[in-house]
Design brief:
alpha/beta, D-Maltodextrin-Binding Protein, domain 2, 2 domains, 3-stranded parallel β-sheet, 20% strand
């Protein structure tokens, strides 16, 4: 009798273990709640920020709204709503792994190191690292920052590259872009390094834009992708389908023109080379 009970107990434990190992996928989570939760930024114009009306807006947010949400709604055969949570370079991967958000949609560079922790969509924006300085500054690029105080965001690829390539630079890392810019404005640092498009956005939103200059050639390649939990191929495919449809139909370029065109929030012309690169990511249906 004891032997029968022992095997019965082992069977129950095996069934329980087998059931618990079937983790809920992101698509199942979204289907159950009817909500896609993204991690994004509050102060990173024009990608994601809070505007004067206290609305959360930006290029990456609109790309989710007009490309990703329709694809998910079609995939799940129901209307999916969008919820936004703040993410930073320090919190975005932990937010994903803790299931607090489903997708990071902001200015996150797709790197080999980050791919150890998360998966990425196709590239939706391309830029490179530069410097924001006071107009007239002697800093003109990476080759002129030795022994100078330079601000960067914690956990950014820009900070890593400066540390590796100019070890004599006095690098100060800040939790977010507003804090780094404040340090620059107050004279605590002599330059702030970030991706060129983010610096252009920061300059455009400054009280006196003409007081500042974005300088230097790109010293990094920064392909932005939307990040998600690893090994969730069905969700990744659904998001990529939405992005590819937006590129192939031209909707992506309409959204780009709104935010980065001559009359956009931050003029940042799309080169023919980058446009072709984006289009080449679209696989045939």
């Amino acid at each position: 009798m004891k032997r029968i009970y022992f095997f019965w107990l082992i069977s129950l434990l095996c069934i329980a273990a087998g059931g618990s190992s079937q983790a809920e996928t992101t698509l199942e989570k979204i289907d159950k709640s009817g909500i896609l939760t993204i991690g994004t930024r509050r102060g990173s114009p024009p990608f994601a920020y809070i505007n004067q009306n206290n609305d959360w807006v930006g290029f990456s947010i609109e790309l989710v709204e007009k490309a990703v949400l329709p694809a998910l709604s079609k995939k799940l055969n129901k209307q999916i709503k969008l919820e936004k949570k703040e993410s930073t370079p320090q919190t975005r991967i932990p937010l994903l792994t803790a299931n607090s958000v489903d997708l990071i949609a902001e200015t996150m560079t797709d790197t080999q190191a980050r791919r150890d922790s998360v998966d990425f969509t196709l590239t939706f924006f391309v830029t490179g690292a530069q410097f924001l300085v006071k107009k007239g500054s002697p800093i003109k690029g990476l080759q002129t920052i030795a022994n100078r105080r330079v601000a960067a965001q914690q956990g950014s690829t820009n900070a890593r590259i400066v540390r590796e390539r100019v070890p004599t630079a006095k690098l100060l890392e800040f939790p977010d872009q507003p804090a780094a810019f404040q340090a620059l404005a107050q004279g605590q640092v002599q330059a702030y390094t970030n991706d060129g498009i983010q610096l252009a956005g920061l300059r455009a939103k400054a009280p006196k834009p003409d007081d500042w200059a974005v300088v230097g050639d790109f010293f990094s390649y920064e392909p932005y992708g939307m990040a998600m939990r690893k090994n969730d191929s069905d969700f990744r495919q659904a998001v990529n389908v939405g992005l590819m449809d937006a590129i192939s139909t031209g909707r992506y370029f309409e959204i780009y023109e709104k935010w980065f065109g001559p009359k956009g929030e931050v003029p940042y012309p799309l080169s023919a080379e980058t446009k072709r690169f984006l289009q080449m990511q679209v696989v045939p249906k």
